[in-house]
Amino acid sequence: MTSRNPVVAVLWLIFAFCNGSGLMILLGAEFLAMMLIVIYVGAVAVLFLFVVMMLDIKFAEVQGELKKNLSIASIIAVIMFADLILIILLGTKSINISNVAFTTPANISNTLAIGKVLYTDFVLPFQAAGLILFVAMIACIALTLRPSTAVKRQNINQQLKRNKDSGMNVTKLGVKQGVQEIQYD
């Protein structure tokens, strides 16, 4: 949020999503972690990055700011690398979470447990959220749709009023008379 460069802000957003997915993997929710990576990083953040890249950004200014903040960035990189090594070294220890209310049994996969909870206990809020998102999508399309005068549109009433007398004009052409000179009713 404090980044002045929008491209860097989107990259920080992608980094935050990856951190969130790493936390979900540590908590044992592998399916949610993959969905976070696939949906948010794969679609939303890339879309943001595409829109931001279409903006006119002065990359000389970005490189100047990068050189100014290189020492801070290297310190943060060393801290994150040390944190990653600490997580890997402590990853062999098991954490007892047997008293948590929503633990899944050992014979059920994470995806099956999420499906059972969503479609049994929380089916009404899940369907209501889907309906709200659907109405919001239709509202966004309706608000941004502008009728264009350059596009020819059908007039169904005019088409239904036509018959063979009004729909076809039979004329005899002269020897040196072209189609452009025919007068239509």
Automatic annotation (TrEMBL):
InterPro entries: NADH_UbQ/plastoQ_OxRdtase_su6, Nuo/plastoQ_OxRdtase_6_NuoJ. Keywords: Cell membrane, Membrane, NAD, Quinone, Transmembrane, Transmembrane helix. The chain crosses the membrane at residues 7-27, 33-57, 69-90, 122-145. The keyword Transmembrane helix applies. It is a multi-pass membrane protein. It catalyses: a quinone + NADH + 5 H(+)(in) = a quinol + NAD(+) + 4 H(+)(out). It is found in: Cell membrane; Membrane. Its EC number is 7.1.1.-. Pfam families: Oxidored_q3. NDH-1 shuttles electrons from NADH, via FMN and iron-sulfur (Fe-S) centers, to quinones in the respiratory chain. Couples the redox reaction to proton translocation (for every two electrons transferred, four hydrogen ions are translocated across the cytoplasmic membrane), and thus conserves the redox energy in a proton gradient. Belongs to the complex I subunit 6 family. This is NADH-quinone oxidoreductase subunit J.
